[in-house]
């Protein structure tokens, strides 16, 4: 999910324009310094999944960056119009440091949702104590570099480690491992973006009676995992079956991952 | 130096337009993910200072990010036109992940150049091993947050520490300390942007017979410094006279700083 697709519409500060006309002034801090925020939601059958949680995260990030948030009803109208135009796929809300906002939708190959994926450990280290930790910022260049590195090495995703060598997350997803039926994922303090589907997995685990630990996540725990999976709003729960070319567990989607994926999908569809 | 100034021109892919017309497509990776680069140069009497070094750094960064660089003669023409329009101040070259490039100039209050400044230690930690270390990336949100934090605390600049607590640089400048006539600044491997004026200071020190150490720079070394200064292309060598409200050395521009500033200014003006 990179940008708007040719032939669709973009709602610019609530006004609909063609994608080809959707521009942003060079002077906006989004362009000059990557100052701004975004959210990307899944859209299914004309419904946005977890919209309130995405809007809440957007508001929290905007408050931290000192960016004004547009009126809720204007955003509501734009997101509903965009979802009506693109009822299957994704919807993105982009808020700039200059106070401009853009809403647009796009499609996704449905086989991408929930499919088995591979990852590599990234050679870099992220900081758990940076000023933008926990914010879905437009200064997304490090994630972009990580995805490029993963693609270069033939993998779908790249896994980050923080300054202590602890696993944190993937470039555009959170990471879970399963060992003997127990779930483990990095705590927020380790330097992650607290994903909406990550929170849904923790809810689902609780409902299913699974033990879930949020804390430190070490590379050997991933190597020794029975199962692992990635979570993201648009692609949902994806079994992580290979890391650095080696199988995770049996190298296929595991039973705990499948149960959680099914339960998360139910939770997200509840109105 | 944030963005283009009202009433001036912007050269968009080499074509001149009014600032108000200078826009960038929403789909460009610069907007979607802060993927791109920039350089900001000083302009004095219609001359760009250290242009070859800035272009070399831009090329190096573009190669690392896989972004195509525009033809040298087109960039030459645009920068010369922008400098003719704004012969005193600064010039910015902005290169987007979509391969678009923008050149524009702006003014600066001349008393800002070389003036005494204050700083605060930032509460965050940067990573010395991130994928964008050493690149002047459009994903500049962390620097922006640091400058905002400094302003909130009544200071001109914010000083970063890396994951080991070592001082690295300011948000938009490099940092030097002077103790008993010896210079010290963070090595590149500690996670800095290797500034053009930083390299000029190291040259000037060598020419003046001053010992300069690039390596680890610790907070107590700053607290115990006789002098400290910040370096940046547009603002030059600025004495750092207060940190967290306490005087550095005598709390005024020191003799080593003044000698270096004068010599750096000469070096940068040589043709």
Explain this structure.
Two copies of one chain form a homodimer. Chain A is of the alpha+beta class and 271 residues long. The first copy, chain A, is 29% helix and 32% strand. Chain A is built from seven helices and 16 strands. In chain A, strands 8, 9, 10, 11, 12, 13, 14, 15 and 16 form a nine-stranded mixed β-sheet that branches. In chain A, helix 4 links the parallel strand 8 and strand 9. The longest helix of chain A has 15 residues. Chain A is globular and about 50 Å long. The two termini of chain A are 25 Å apart. In chain A, 54% of the residues are buried. The mean pLDDT of chain A is 97. Chains A and B meet through strand 3, helix 1, strand 8 and helix 4 of A and strand 3, helix 1, strand 8 and helix 4 of B. Strand 3 of chain A pairs antiparallel with strand 3 of chain B.
Oligomer: homodimer
Give the proportion of residues in helices of chain A: 25-40%
The pair of chains with the biggest contact is:
A-B, 50 and 50 residues
Class by SSE composition of chain A: alpha+beta
Largest sheet of chain A: 9 strands, mixed
Mean pLDDT of chain A equals 97
**Number of helices, counting only DSSP H or I runs of 4 residues or more of chain A:** 7
Spans of chain A of at least 5 consecutive residues whose pLDDT stays below 50 are none
The number of strands of chain A is 16
The share of residues in extended strands of chain A comes to: 25-35%
Between the first and last Cα atoms of chain A, what is the distance in angstroms? 25 Å
Radius of gyration of chain A from the CA trace?
Answer: 18 Å
Listing every helix as H and every strand as E from the N terminus to the C terminus, the arrangement of chain A reads: EEEHEEHHEEEHEEEEHEHEEEH
Q: What is the global morphology of chain A?
A: globular
């Amino acid at each position: 999910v990179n940008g708007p697709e040719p032939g669709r519409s973009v709602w610019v500060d609530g006004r609909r324009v063609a994608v080809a006309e959707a521009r942003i002034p060079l002077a906006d801090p989004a362009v000059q310094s990557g100052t701004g925020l975004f959210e990307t939601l899944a859209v299914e059958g004309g419904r946005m999944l977890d919209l309130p949680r995405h809007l809440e995260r957007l508001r929290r990030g905007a408050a931290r960056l000192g960016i004004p948030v547009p009126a809720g009803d204007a955003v509501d109208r734009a997101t509903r119009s965009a979802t009506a135009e693109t009822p299957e796929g994704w919807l993105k809300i982009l808020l700039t440091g200059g106070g401009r906002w853009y809403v647009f939708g796009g499609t996704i190959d449905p086989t991408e949702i929930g499919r088995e994926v591979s990852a590599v450990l990234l050679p870099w280290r992220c900081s758990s104590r940076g000023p933008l930790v926990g914010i879905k910022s437009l200064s997304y260049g490090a994630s972009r570099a990580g995805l490029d590195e993963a693609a270069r090495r033939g993998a779908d995703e790249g896994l980050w480690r923080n300054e202590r060598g602890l696993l944190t997350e993937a470039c555009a997803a959170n990471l879970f491992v399963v060992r003997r039926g127990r779930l483990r994922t990095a705590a927020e303090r380790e330097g992650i973006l607290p994903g909406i589907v990550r929170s849904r997995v923790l809810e689902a685990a609780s409902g299913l009676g699974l033990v879930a630990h949020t804390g430190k996540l070490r590379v050997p725990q991933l190597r020794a995992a029975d199962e692992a999976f990635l979570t993201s709003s648009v692609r949902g729960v994806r079994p992580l079956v290979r890391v650095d070319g080696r199988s995770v567990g049996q190298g296929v989607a595991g039973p705990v991952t499948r149960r959680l994926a099914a339960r998360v999908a139910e939770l997200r569809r509840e109105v």
